[in-house]
Amino acid sequence: MTERPILVGLTGSIGMGKSTTARMFADLGFPVWDADAAVARLYTHGGDAVVPLQELVPAAIIDGAVSKAELKKAIAASPDLLLKIETIVHPLVKQDRRDFAAAHQGAEIIVFDVPLLFETGAHKKVDHVVVVSTSPEKQRNRVLSRGTMDEPTLNMILRKQTPDAEKKALADTVIDTATLDGARAQVHDLVESLRDEYA
Prior knowledge:
Elements: E1 6-11, H1 18-27, E2 32-34, H2 35-43, H3 50-56, E3 61-62, E4 65-66, H4 68-77, H5 81-103, E5 109-113, E6 128-133, H6 136-145, H7 151-160, H8 164-170, E7 173-176, H9 180-197
Parallel strand pairs: 1-5, 1-6, 2-5, 6-7
Antiparallel strand pairs: 3-4
Protein backbone atom coordinates (compact mmCIF):
# COMPACT_ATOMS: atom_id res chain seq x y z
CA MET A 1 0.00 0.00 0.00
CA THR A 2 0.98 3.63 -0.45
CA GLU A 3 2.11 5.59 2.60
CA ARG A 4 -0.97 7.79 2.39
CA PRO A 5 -4.64 7.03 1.72
CA ILE A 6 -5.90 6.61 -1.85
CA LEU A 7 -8.14 9.61 -2.51
CA VAL A 8 -11.31 8.82 -4.45
CA GLY A 9 -13.58 11.55 -5.81
CA LEU A 10 -17.20 10.42 -6.15
CA THR A 11 -19.69 12.41 -8.21
CA GLY A 12 -22.76 12.11 -10.41
CA SER A 13 -25.79 14.10 -11.48
CA ILE A 14 -28.96 14.35 -9.42
CA GLY A 15 -30.81 11.03 -9.06
CA MET A 16 -27.90 8.94 -10.29
CA GLY A 17 -27.34 7.16 -6.95
CA LYS A 18 -24.30 9.02 -5.61
CA SER A 19 -25.37 9.09 -1.96
CA THR A 20 -26.31 5.40 -2.05
CA THR A 21 -22.94 4.53 -3.59
CA ALA A 22 -21.14 6.66 -0.98
CA ARG A 23 -22.87 4.60 1.74
CA MET A 24 -21.54 1.42 0.08
CA PHE A 25 -17.98 2.70 0.55
CA ALA A 26 -18.81 3.66 4.15
CA ASP A 27 -20.23 0.18 4.75
CA LEU A 28 -16.82 -1.23 3.76
CA GLY A 29 -15.25 0.90 6.49
CA PHE A 30 -13.85 3.74 4.40
CA PRO A 31 -14.26 7.33 5.63
CA VAL A 32 -16.55 9.38 3.36
CA TRP A 33 -16.51 13.18 3.27
CA ASP A 34 -19.81 14.67 2.10
CA ALA A 35 -19.64 18.14 0.53
CA ASP A 36 -23.33 18.85 1.18
CA ALA A 37 -22.95 17.88 4.85
CA ALA A 38 -19.90 20.15 5.09
CA VAL A 39 -21.95 23.10 3.80
CA ALA A 40 -24.69 22.25 6.30
CA ARG A 41 -22.10 22.35 9.12
CA LEU A 42 -20.80 25.71 7.93
CA TYR A 43 -24.34 27.13 7.77
CA THR A 44 -25.53 25.87 11.16
CA HIS A 45 -25.50 27.88 14.40
CA GLY A 46 -21.84 28.66 15.17
CA GLY A 47 -20.70 27.51 11.72
CA ASP A 48 -17.77 29.29 10.11
CA ALA A 49 -19.88 30.70 7.25
CA VAL A 50 -22.47 32.42 9.48
CA VAL A 51 -20.58 35.60 10.40
CA PRO A 52 -19.12 36.41 6.93
CA LEU A 53 -22.48 35.71 5.26
CA GLN A 54 -24.27 37.84 7.86
CA GLU A 55 -22.13 40.79 6.77
CA LEU A 56 -22.95 40.12 3.11
CA VAL A 57 -26.63 39.09 3.36
CA PRO A 58 -28.01 39.99 6.81
CA ALA A 59 -31.53 38.77 5.94
CA ALA A 60 -30.21 35.25 5.30
CA ILE A 61 -29.30 34.70 8.96
CA ILE A 62 -32.19 33.40 11.05
CA ASP A 63 -31.71 32.39 14.70
CA GLY A 64 -27.93 32.44 14.26
CA ALA A 65 -27.86 30.07 11.27
CA VAL A 66 -27.83 30.56 7.50
CA SER A 67 -31.21 30.05 5.84
CA LYS A 68 -30.74 28.48 2.39
CA ALA A 69 -34.23 29.64 1.43
CA GLU A 70 -33.38 33.26 2.27
CA LEU A 71 -30.05 32.96 0.44
CA LYS A 72 -31.90 31.76 -2.68
CA LYS A 73 -34.29 34.72 -2.45
CA ALA A 74 -31.38 37.15 -2.15
CA ILE A 75 -29.58 35.56 -5.14
CA ALA A 76 -32.76 35.70 -7.22
CA ALA A 77 -33.04 39.42 -6.47
CA SER A 78 -29.34 40.04 -7.14
CA PRO A 79 -27.69 37.36 -9.32
CA ASP A 80 -24.17 38.79 -8.90
CA LEU A 81 -24.47 37.89 -5.21
CA LEU A 82 -23.86 34.19 -5.96
CA LEU A 83 -20.21 34.74 -6.86
CA LYS A 84 -19.65 36.71 -3.65
CA ILE A 85 -21.24 33.92 -1.59
CA GLU A 86 -19.12 31.28 -3.36
CA THR A 87 -16.00 33.35 -2.64
CA ILE A 88 -16.82 33.01 1.07
CA VAL A 89 -18.12 29.42 1.16
CA HIS A 90 -15.84 27.54 -1.27
CA PRO A 91 -12.59 28.18 0.69
CA LEU A 92 -14.34 27.09 3.91
CA VAL A 93 -15.55 23.88 2.24
CA LYS A 94 -12.03 23.19 0.92
CA GLN A 95 -10.61 23.66 4.42
CA ASP A 96 -13.24 21.29 5.84
CA ARG A 97 -12.19 18.70 3.23
CA ARG A 98 -8.50 19.13 4.06
CA ASP A 99 -9.22 18.79 7.79
CA PHE A 100 -11.20 15.58 7.14
CA ALA A 101 -8.35 14.11 5.07
CA ALA A 102 -5.80 15.04 7.74
CA ALA A 103 -7.92 13.35 10.42
CA HIS A 104 -8.07 10.10 8.40
CA GLN A 105 -4.45 9.70 7.28
CA GLY A 106 -4.43 6.13 8.58
CA ALA A 107 -7.26 5.08 6.23
CA GLU A 108 -6.63 2.88 3.21
CA ILE A 109 -9.06 4.84 1.03
CA ILE A 110 -10.82 8.17 1.62
CA VAL A 111 -13.90 8.95 -0.47
CA PHE A 112 -14.92 12.54 -1.23
CA ASP A 113 -18.62 12.76 -2.16
CA VAL A 114 -18.77 15.99 -4.18
CA PRO A 115 -21.75 16.88 -6.42
CA LEU A 116 -19.73 19.58 -8.23
CA LEU A 117 -16.45 17.65 -8.39
CA PHE A 118 -15.59 18.79 -11.93
CA GLU A 119 -17.23 22.21 -11.71
CA THR A 120 -15.10 23.20 -8.69
CA GLY A 121 -11.89 21.58 -9.96
CA ALA A 122 -11.81 19.18 -7.00
CA HIS A 123 -11.24 16.26 -9.39
CA LYS A 124 -7.64 17.46 -9.71
CA LYS A 125 -7.08 16.84 -5.98
CA VAL A 126 -7.90 13.11 -5.99
CA ASP A 127 -6.18 9.96 -7.27
CA HIS A 128 -9.22 8.34 -8.85
CA VAL A 129 -12.51 9.80 -10.12
CA VAL A 130 -15.71 7.74 -9.89
CA VAL A 131 -18.87 8.84 -11.69
CA VAL A 132 -22.18 7.14 -10.87
CA SER A 133 -24.70 6.91 -13.68
CA THR A 134 -27.90 5.26 -14.84
CA SER A 135 -30.39 5.74 -17.65
CA PRO A 136 -32.11 9.15 -18.04
CA GLU A 137 -35.47 7.42 -17.48
CA LYS A 138 -34.38 5.86 -14.18
CA GLN A 139 -32.80 9.14 -13.12
CA ARG A 140 -36.05 11.06 -13.69
CA ASN A 141 -38.15 8.40 -12.00
CA ARG A 142 -35.93 8.42 -8.92
CA VAL A 143 -35.98 12.19 -8.50
CA LEU A 144 -39.68 12.72 -9.21
CA SER A 145 -40.75 9.77 -7.03
CA ARG A 146 -39.21 11.49 -3.99
CA GLY A 147 -42.08 13.96 -4.12
CA THR A 148 -39.81 16.89 -3.28
CA MET A 149 -39.32 18.25 -6.78
CA ASP A 150 -41.41 18.88 -9.90
CA GLU A 151 -40.31 18.29 -13.49
CA PRO A 152 -39.55 21.96 -14.40
CA THR A 153 -37.26 22.27 -11.36
CA LEU A 154 -35.50 19.02 -12.27
CA ASN A 155 -35.01 20.23 -15.85
CA MET A 156 -33.51 23.49 -14.57
CA ILE A 157 -31.06 21.60 -12.31
CA LEU A 158 -30.05 19.27 -15.14
CA ARG A 159 -29.34 22.25 -17.39
CA LYS A 160 -27.00 23.70 -14.76
CA GLN A 161 -25.11 20.46 -14.11
CA THR A 162 -22.31 19.13 -16.30
CA PRO A 163 -24.01 16.60 -18.62
CA ASP A 164 -23.77 12.95 -17.61
CA ALA A 165 -21.93 12.02 -20.83
CA GLU A 166 -19.24 14.63 -20.13
CA LYS A 167 -18.79 13.41 -16.55
CA LYS A 168 -18.46 9.81 -17.70
CA ALA A 169 -15.86 10.83 -20.28
CA LEU A 170 -13.77 12.43 -17.50
CA ALA A 171 -14.14 9.49 -15.08
CA ASP A 172 -11.55 6.86 -14.22
CA THR A 173 -14.40 4.52 -13.28
CA VAL A 174 -18.13 4.65 -14.07
CA ILE A 175 -20.45 2.79 -11.68
CA ASP A 176 -23.82 1.84 -13.13
CA THR A 177 -26.41 2.17 -10.35
CA ALA A 178 -29.32 0.54 -12.21
CA THR A 179 -29.48 -2.08 -9.42
CA LEU A 180 -28.21 -1.96 -5.84
CA ASP A 181 -26.53 -5.36 -6.06
CA GLY A 182 -24.84 -4.43 -9.31
CA ALA A 183 -23.55 -1.15 -7.89
CA ARG A 184 -22.32 -2.87 -4.73
CA ALA A 185 -20.40 -5.44 -6.79
CA GLN A 186 -18.81 -2.66 -8.84
CA VAL A 187 -17.73 -0.85 -5.64
CA HIS A 188 -16.10 -4.08 -4.38
CA ASP A 189 -14.33 -4.58 -7.72
CA LEU A 190 -13.08 -0.99 -7.71
CA VAL A 191 -11.68 -1.31 -4.18
CA GLU A 192 -9.79 -4.46 -5.18
CA SER A 193 -8.41 -2.83 -8.35
CA LEU A 194 -7.27 0.24 -6.37
CA ARG A 195 -5.52 -2.03 -3.88
CA ASP A 196 -3.71 -3.74 -6.74
CA GLU A 197 -2.85 -0.46 -8.46
CA TYR A 198 -1.48 1.23 -5.35
CA ALA A 199 0.07 -1.85 -3.71
